[in-house]
Amino acid sequence: MRHALRVIGAEAFKQHRRMFGGPLVVFSMLIWPALQLAITYYTMLPLLETPGIGERWPVAAQPVRLLAFLATGAFAYMFYFSLVQSAWHFSFERISGTMELLFLSPASRFALVLANGTGALVQNTWLAGCFAVAAATASGSLHVAHPGMYAVAALALVIPALAWGTFLNSLLLFSRDSAFLYTLLDDPLWFVAGVRLPLFAMPVVIKAIGLAFPLTSSLAVLRGALLDAEPLSGVAGPLGLLGVLCLLLVAGTATLLRIGEARAQRTGSMQLY
Amino acid sequence: MVTAWATLKRNWLVTRRAYPWSYFIGTLGPGIFTVVVALLSYRAIGGGRVSAWFGASSGTSDYLGYVTVGAAALMFTTRMVLWVAKAQITEQREGTLESQMLTPAMRLPYLLGVAAQAFITSILELCCLLGTALLLGVRLPVPDPVSFAAAILAAFVAVFGLSIPISAIMISAGEAHITQNTLFCVVGLLCGFTFPAALLPAPLTFLGELLPATAAMRVLRAATLHAAPIQQVTGDLLICLALGCLYAAVGLLVLPHAERRAITRGASA
Amino acid sequence: MMRAIATDDLRKTYPVVERPWWKPGKPLRAAPAVDGLSLRIPAGQVTGLLGLNGAGKTTTIRMLATLLRPTSGRATVDDLDLVKDAREVRRRINMIAGGERMVYTRLTGRENLWYFGQLYDVPKAQLKARIAELLALVGLEHAADQRVERYSKGMRQRLSIARGLINRPAYLLLDEPTLGLDAPIARDLRAVVADLARDGVGVLLTSHYLAEVEQLCADIYVIAAGRLVAQGTPAELTTMAERQHTVEVSLAAAVDDVDHAVETLAMRTGAQITTGVDDDLRPRYTLRHSADLAGELATTIVTAGGAIARLEVTPPTLEDAIIALADAARQPSAVAS
After folding, report:
1. Across the interface, do C107 and A10 touch by the CB < 8 Å criterion?
2. For testing contact with chain A, the best of C108, C115, C168 (most A CBs within 10 A)
3. CB-neighbour burial class of residue B48 (10 A; exposed 0-12, middle 13-18, buried 19+)
4. pLDDT in tens, A51-103
5. Hey, are the CB atoms on C67 and A103 less than 8 Å from each other?
6. Strand-pair partners of C94
7. How far apart are CA B217 and CA B223, in angstroms?
8. Domain C245-314, CATH
9. Which residue is closest to C106 within chain A, CA to CA?
10. CATH for C4-233, among 3.40.50.300, 3.40.190.10, 3.40.30.120, 3.90.1580.10?
């Protein structure tokens, strides 16, 4: 355990030196999401002042509430996408030859992929996190049932995101075409998870697919707890699903790492698929 | 002209042998999802209707057609920029930029060759997006053929012009990822692809007018959604061509400096 | 306990056409890369592993580094099984491969070493001193706090060597460690390797530079097509293959009698003879024989009325021996072992 903690610390530091202060973080975690948020907002605007909007979607009745709805989506998506990005970078280590050095060391493989995700999350999202808190406070768009729900919302975002990142790291570690996975996890992810659309607007099939991604439930908890003043019982469903998904992701990571390393040892190639 | 033809042929061969699927999916995806999100929100949020002011500021009440044409144009822009603006930095990464620069060939025909191949490929790819939109139930009116052709020319010149200074920025910074994605977000917001640019605050609308893609969008929409005859779009067409040529000229002027910088940096690295 | 890396009938067969992992069944076609190797790499000496390209050297090293799993056979490190006790083995070994980008460019040299120190669980109290010691060893103290992206190729390679030593490995696997290094740096590295061996580290070295192998290795294994073809000290190996002295003579001018006399000499001694012209278009004779025929050839030429413009003798080398042994191994009936 002590060694695992050292591995996590070292890996997070490596991430820090690689990413911190680089313009990519500022652009991909702040500027692009902000511009994209504006595009989504303006594209949706022509649909708002239509008859009966109050019944169909009360959120859309006030621009500030709509913006808060879309901004929480953008924020949570950025959390998850930062992990896709980090896993993508991690897969480059295979090409540059440093991946082999990690496997040469006695460090726990699980600790390595977990640390890589944690490091990325901390590096990437603190800046946007500060902005989000400031914007939410200033706009007065937060409606919370109980102060404890802030913690529930934060945990429902961070822990599943970490499980997701850990899983992605092991997935992209052994993938032949990580650029393809990267692309696959960008647009389809925001679409099925309801980042830019309320879930009621989506067909049942898409909603069902969306439930397989933790982002969907994280977002449901986040919006419920912070925007709609839901109590704990109001978000119990998505929280339970998040718990199950986290367990599945962790089990998936452990399996992938075992199969991947065994295959690498057998074939001399780190590509699993 | 020989250079343009040779470059077109070279890129055509390379693309046929190793088609960049990741890029294609990466640009088709946002296009399709933009159309799908518009479709779903039009039905579920707008209840099949659109705000009254939309017709006034956009000139049409066909929200889905409006967004689809915009998404297609944005995909075209993205693809062309990915080919043309990234042509030189790709050469740099593959180590062929120096051999390029050793030849007496001019930059303009080279970039035109790249753009010609990119244009053919992008149009074919666009058909995939429009076909998908059609399957999803979006219906577009039949455009006026002359102004439609003029609109496509305008879009080509606008994007080609924009790509050259971007290429210079990329090779002198030795970086493409941040530059290209920032450009896509900025034109997506300022040029009125999926919503009327007039909705933006005035300073942003003004900035949008400085980009050739904004005028190109107006020509394209007039041609496709209103079947406007060529006389109606001449003003915007001229603005777009003038801005496109201006950007291209500025780009060609700074490109030699950027190339020298790229080579110097490559040598010191 | 035996202080050594030992392998017994080690085999590695790569599945050439691999089924996806979700489809059961045997690999479709297999090519043996290592075919029944039994080696012993004792602590405290440098052991060489030689062979032509594709002989299986790198596969062997990567199996010993736990990066590849043997298809069959057994390998132990200080009696620890390479497969079952992989984690403990990893603590005791390290590998340095030449010509590779095996460090993080965005970190400084010191940070790279710190990072790997954490991964190897080097005790905290020792890590700082260990890093300083290694930086001094590879001569990077002045650049320790610079980012590696600003390092030259040689500096990166030296850092990579320091990385390979961070866990004080009991065994060090060196795969072409001096590939692409400048001569002075390569010389320093050889000195470091010799010192490590003196201090009790067991080193396995593959290298294309045979002078390096001759200088460092107490014992050499020669492999071809994944099999052991010879083992011995450098001197033993040199004599093991058929000795071939090469004598090359250029004449000032062509003389018919000399031609005849040299051919007679070759026929009498059984030497291989090649005739031709040298770069200055002078007649040239090349004789190959297990004995050094230089003296006899010179006498023959002068007696027949020829004038010698140039004479060169090449004694048999380790390189000749390796090539000869590898060639012999290609014909199964002639395998020496």
Report:
1. no
2. C115
3. exposed
4. 888 888 888 878 888 889 999 999 999 888 888 888 888 888 877 778 888 88
5. yes
6. C172
7. 10
8. 3.30.70.100
9. A18
10. 3.40.50.300
